[in-house]
């Protein structure tokens, strides 16, 4: 039986019975056919994308199913969850269709943060409408309509219920801490972020969902939704990248390998490899850029969008006249030929 993704989760519901969040300890991408076949018999799954709530009896059947196909890692999860009073859900996605439930969204976000899928590798259409706005507190996820009562109950017991944030997304580190990473402030990385092996995120760094790094990076600035940073590239302190939802922008912003965004710089175009954006300079697709050759002679003026994806570029602002300039090691003739292709 075909399978795109699979996960056994434990989560939280509101007092009205609505899912607030789901934790998947060990989600699977393209699970083994034998595993899916055994699980299907245990819970009467007949195909399609489904989020199936699991009771104690079904959990025991799942454990037996996992053991029958040698899926010990999944069987361990059932053992730990045995006797839990928290709601349980089995999410099976036959295809990467648009999510149809909160449980499905959380499975897909978990696949990203577990580094099983790279950003832009999943269909997340309509996900915002399926994610409730939640109070993330010292006692876990609480529905906003339940929060006043829970706060009062805590005070009555001499405690303070600490509300850490009110958001659709929880922090990634409460669901998975990817191997080989350092994180200065875990609250600044949302579930659904992809944090590559060898990445350090400093205290002011931020990584949104469906975005992140693919390898070794130092992140001291902002990686907005949908932005992907290549191996060996650094985002300087206070630097920002324009997300695909910002200002009506529909261009996917990316940073190639071995690039540097200087402190307080801003990026609104895709960068190729080995590019540098000078500190304090914000370049958007419509920015007029003066192109210089290797002798600092002006070659022409183009929109920054025409340089999208080009390699070995240095973007800077001329401190005397304020214009944005870009330098390359290519000769003026090669530059002209390249620029004229886009006239």
What's the end-to-end separation, in Å? Answer: 51 Å
Task: Give the strand line-up of the largest sheet.
Answer: 16-19-21-25-26-23-24
What proportion strand? 25-35%
Low-pLDDT segments, ≥5 res: 331-336
The coarse overall form would be: elongated
* Structure summary, number of beta strands: 26
Contiguous helical run count: 6
What is the averaged pLDDT score?
A: 92
Largest sheet: 7 strands, mixed
Give the fraction of residues assigned to helices: 10-25%
Structural class, from secondary structure content? alpha/beta
- Radius of gyration, rounded? 24 Å
Determine the oligomeric state from the structure.
Answer: single chain
Q: Keywords for this structure?
A:
343 residues; alpha/beta; 7-stranded mixed sheet; 5-stranded antiparallel sheet; 6 helices; 26 strands; elongated
Detailed description of the structure:
The protein has 343 residues and is α/β, with parallel strands linked by helices. 19% of the residues lie in helices and 26% in strands. A 7-stranded mixed beta sheet has the order 16-19-21-25-26-23-24, with helices on one face. Strands 1, 2, 3, 4 and 5 form a 5-stranded antiparallel beta sheet that branches. It has a 3-stranded antiparallel beta sheet with strand order 7-6-8, with no helix packed on it. Helix 1 packs antiparallel against helix 2 (56-68) and helix 2 packs antiparallel against helix 3. The longest helix has 13 residues, at 56-68. Mean pLDDT is 92; it is low at 331-336.
């Amino acid at each position: 039986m075909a399978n795109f993704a699979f996960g056994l989760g434990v989560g939280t519901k509101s007092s009205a019975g609505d899912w607030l969040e789901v934790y998947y300890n060990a989600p699977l991408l393209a699970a083994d056919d034998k595993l899916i076949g055994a699980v299907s018999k245990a819970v009467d799954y007949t195909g399609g994308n489904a989020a199936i709530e699991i009771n104690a009896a079904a959990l025991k059947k799942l454990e037996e199913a996992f053991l029958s196909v040698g899926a010990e890692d999944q069987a361990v999860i059932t053992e730990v969850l045995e006797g839990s009073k928290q709601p349980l859900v089995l999410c099976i996605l036959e295809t990467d269709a648009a999510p149809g439930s909160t449980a499905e969204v959380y499975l897909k976000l978990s696949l990203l943060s577990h580094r099983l899928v790279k950003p832009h590798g999943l269909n997340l259409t309509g996900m915002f409408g399926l994610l409730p706005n939640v109070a993330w507190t010292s006692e876990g996820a609480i529905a906003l309509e339940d929060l006043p009562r829970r706060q009062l109950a805590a005070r009555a017991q001499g405690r303070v219920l600490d509300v850490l944030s009110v958001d659709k997304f929880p922090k990634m580190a409460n669901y998975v801490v990817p191997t080989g990473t350092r994180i200065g402030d875990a609250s600044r990385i949302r579930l659904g972020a992809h944090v590559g092996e060898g990445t350090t995120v400093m205290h002011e760094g931020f990584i949104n969902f469906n975005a992140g790094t693919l390898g070794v990076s130092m992140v001291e600035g902002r990686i907005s939704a949908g932005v992907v940073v290549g191996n060996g590239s650094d985002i300087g302190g206070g630097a920002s990248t324009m997300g695909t939802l910002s200002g009506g922008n529909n261009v996917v912003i990316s940073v190639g390998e071995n690039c540097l965004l200087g402190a307080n710089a801003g990026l609104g175009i895709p960068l190729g490899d080995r590019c540098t954006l000078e500190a304090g300079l914000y370049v958007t697709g419509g920015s007029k850029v003066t192109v210089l050759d290797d002798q600092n002679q002006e070659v022409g003026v183009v929109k920054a969008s025409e340089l999208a994806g080009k390699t070995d570029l240095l973007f800077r602002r001329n401190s005397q006249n304020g214009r944005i300039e870009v330098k390359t090691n290519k000769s003026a003739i090669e530059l002209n030929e390249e620029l004229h292709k886009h006239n």
